[in-house]
Amino acid sequence: MKRLVLLAVAALLLAGCQRASTTRETVMVYTPFPVGTAEGLASAFEKKTGIKVEQIKEGTTRVYSRLRAEKGFPRADVWIGGGGMVPFITAANEGLLEPYVPKGLENLPATRGNLVLRDVEWRWVGAAIIALGYAYNPEKMSESELPKKWEDLADPKWKGEIMMWDPAASGTAMLFLQAALLRSRQETGNDEAGWKFLKAFYANMKRYAEEGPPSLMVSRGEIKIGIHFEHQVLQSLQENKDPQVVQEKMRTLRWTLPPGSPVIVDPIALVKNAPHSENGKKYIDFVMSPEGQAIINEYFFVLDSSFGPPKYLDYTLADLSARAMAMDVDWMGKSFNPIRTHWQNEVEKSHWLWEGARQ
Questions:
Q1: Fold of the domain spanning 24-129+264-315
Q2: Which residue ranges make up each domain of the chain?
Q3: Can you say how many angstroms the Cα of residue 342 is from the centroid of all Cα atoms in its chain?
Q4: In contact, 303 and 117? CB cutoff 8 Å
Q5: 91 and 66 in contact (C-beta within 8 Å)?
Q6: CB distance 183 to 234 below 8 Å
Q7: pLDDT digits over 144-157, tens only?
Q8: Which residues contact 115 (CB under 8 A, 6 or more apart)?
Q9: How many CB atoms lie under 10 A from the CB of residue 346?
Q10: pLDDT at 17
């Protein structure tokens, strides 16, 4: 009998050890980052720490909506990338993000010139620097034919030649809308000229990008202008890493930055009440370390000045700064949801009602 009891205890201990050996620590990351960047960070972090990275990859607006819906029972630990800092500002104001100071960045200032680097309460910090410009096809348009300023895109000559993602899902598109309105406020003191431009811009759009990025349609010659961050175009160019293939692609796809463009950080943040908050902090520390920043620098500018521009880009960080518009962080954070609603109700719907009345 005693022998049977000992055997049973041993079996239980063995089963427990087997369960422990198969149980693995995890961290859940929500991100709209390029697949290459997201997977590169995850793979390197797993190799370094043994912590498995689970990721949900979808557009910024959907990530933000998911975090709002899960506020009472968070599933995510970390949110990285969002078409810039504005969705993070909005999320922080809604109590969705937890303050955290990444290791080694204790002395990082809140701003560097006109560039906002982090939230003053450390609820988010810039993981990369991004600039919103547009993609074009050099075989379809020479540099002298390019729109010289954003307002040129309201000209009817561009009708059917422009594409961007849907602001209902895309942080890239939302920043485009906000930047247009902010330029209007800075120049005239109100939003009126900005909404007038956006209505004309929408009338010129071919459609929203649904199957692939706007840059794909640009490179095929189906449209002339695709609203894009530089890292999105770089990712399209480098789907095949062969330098000869990249150079061939650059014959039909380039990126440019008009004056008065948004140049901002793309943050990383710890989700409030994250289920694996300590692992989330470790992931943030890794992303902001030189090792993590080197991975991000493949497609992005980074905060660490020891890193140069991403490969195949014709701009330096100084070039971006020279073309950057002044940003109103508080207004952008508060206006994110109202602008999206106004766009859907007053621009999209009114346009199609007007088009329907004409037919």
A1: D-Maltodextrin-Binding Protein; domain 2 (3.40.190)
A2: 24-129+264-315, 131-262+326-358
A3: 22
A4: yes
A5: no
A6: no
A7: 999 999 999 999 99
A8: 129, 263, 264, 265, 321, 324
A9: 13
A10: 43
CA–CA separation, 262 and 324 (whole Å): 6
d(CA 120, CA 207): 39
pLDDT band of 333, cuts 50, 70, 90: confident
Judge whether 24-129+264-315 and 131-262+326-358 match in fold: yes
* Gap between the Cα atoms of 277 and 78, Å rounded: 8
Q: Which CATH architecture has domain 131-262+326-358?
A: 3-Layer(aba) Sandwich (3.40)
Q: Is the dihedral of CA 262, 265, 268, 271 positive or negative?
A: negative
358 compared with 288, residue with greater pLDDT? 288
Q: Give tens-digit pLDDT for 220-250.
A: 999 999 999 999 999 899 887 888 998 999 9
pLDDT at position 352: 55
**pLDDT single digits (tens) 158-190:** 999 999 999 988 889 999 999 999 999 999 999
Sign for the pseudo-dihedral over CA of 298, 300, 306, 308: positive
- Please report the pLDDT score of residue 113 as a whole number: 81
pLDDT in the model for residue 4: 45
Cβ 204 vs Cβ 248: under 8 Å: no
Those residues with Cβ within 8 angstroms of residue 287's Cβ, 6 or more apart along the chain or in another chain:
41, 45, 80, 102, 127, 268, 293, 296
CA gyration radius, the chain: 23
* CA nearest neighbour of 348 among 201, 242, 229, 191: 201
pLDDT tens figures, 63-87? 999 999 999 999 999 999 988 999 9
Residue 82: per-residue pLDDT:
83
How many residues does the structure list for the chain?
359
Angle between helices 60-69 and 86-93 (to 10 degrees): 10
DSSP H or E run through 181: helix 171-188
DSSP 70: T
Q: How far apart are alpha carbons 173 and 19 in whole angstroms? A: 46
Supply 212's token pair. Answer: 């692939």
Question: How far apart (Å, rounded) are the C-alpha atoms in residues 260 and 280?
Answer: 36
Checking if the pLDDT of 256 tops 80, the result is yes
Single pTM value for the model:
0.85
The SS3 call for residue 222 is coil
